[in-house]
């Protein structure tokens, strides 16, 4: 990003106010309204999603900022090819809860600092989404934060975990362009696995599986509309509730 050309706007402030009104539904459905206002717009220090101290719990940071063209963008990583699991895949900054973490928000911010050098003071956490549960039973909690000053962020990849740091327009996860899907089955249930191709500056990234699912949900909330395609998400993503 050319910081000399970058000027902030009221857009992120308005978005922050909108997202503070979001409350995760008790049970996700594609028929749910995109927002569910609550009286208290502050995030509880204990997190709205229960006890964060769990070996089967993780949190990821959806860090949003405004691009040069005024679009809302999200920071992503490509995992190191030397990792024992999910090597080389695109992911959101994040990881498993550790003993000293007070809540899901702290987990997400700590992991982002460790993985990409993102100073937590640059991120204004505005809401926490419903958890997504993997087939292995790990509950992944998406934490949405807004970064007003993108130019203050100096990416510093932890090479043991992260191969590349990049960003993508959030709205792409609502569009049918550059998207493909495969149909899978789990316990007799058929669902769609989405793949989004993102090719900035002659590079090629594929954003898929759980990361794509989380970003489809986040984009639906931010842009107040459902995706242009049928989502057909697997029910196991929310089988453990919130």
UniProtKB/TrEMBL annotation:
Chain coiled-coil ranges: none
Keyword terms, alphabetized: Hydrolase, Magnesium, Manganese, Metal-binding
UniProt-listed InterPro entries: CoAse, NUDIX_hydrolase-like_dom_sf, NUDIX_hydrolase_dom
PROSITE patterns named in the record: NUDIX (PS51462)
Cofactor(s) required for function per UniProt: Mg(2+); Mn(2+)
CC per GO annotation: cytosol
CDD domains: NUDIX_CoAse_Nudt7 (cd03426)
UniProt entry tagged with the keyword Cell membrane: no
Any GO molecular function: coenzyme A diphosphatase activity
GO annotation, biological process: coenzyme A biosynthetic process; coenzyme A catabolic process; malonyl-CoA catabolic process
Region named Disordered: 26-51
Domain Nudix hydrolase stretches: 55-211
Keyword Magnesium: yes
Name of the molecule in the record: Nudix hydrolase domain-containing protein
Highest classification ranks of the organism: Eukaryota, Viridiplantae, Streptophyta, Embryophyta, Tracheophyta
């Amino acid at each position: 990003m050319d910081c000399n050309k970058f000027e902030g706007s009221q857009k992120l402030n308005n978005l922050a106010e909108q997202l503070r009104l979001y409350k995760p539904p008790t049970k996700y459905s594609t028929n749910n309204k995109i927002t569910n206002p609550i009286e208290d717009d502050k995030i509880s220090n204990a997190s709205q999603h229960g006890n964060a101290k769990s070996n089967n719990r993780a949190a990821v940071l959806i860090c949003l900022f405004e691009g040069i063209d005024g679009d809302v963008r999200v920071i992503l990583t490509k995992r190191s090819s030397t990792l024992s699991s999910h090597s080389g895949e695109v992911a959101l900054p994040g990881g498993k809860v550790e003993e000293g973490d007070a809540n899901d928000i702290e987990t997400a911010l700590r992991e982002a600092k460790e993985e990409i050098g993102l100073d937590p003071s640059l991120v204004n956490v505005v809401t926490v989404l419903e958890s997504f549960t993997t087939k292995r039973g790990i509950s992944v909690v998406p934490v949405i934060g807004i970064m007003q000053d993108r130019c203050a962020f100096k990416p510093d990849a932890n090479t043991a975990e992260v191969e590349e740091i990049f960003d993508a327009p959030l709205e792409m996860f609502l569009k049918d362009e550059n998207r493909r899907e495969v149909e899978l089955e789990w316990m007799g249930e058929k669902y769609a696995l989405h793949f989004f191709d993102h090719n900035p500056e002659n590079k090629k990234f594929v954003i898929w599986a759980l990361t794509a699912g989380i970003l489809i949900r986040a984009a639906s909330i931010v842009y107040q509309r459902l995706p242009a395609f049928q989502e057909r998400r697997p029910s196991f993503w929310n089988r453990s509730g919130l």
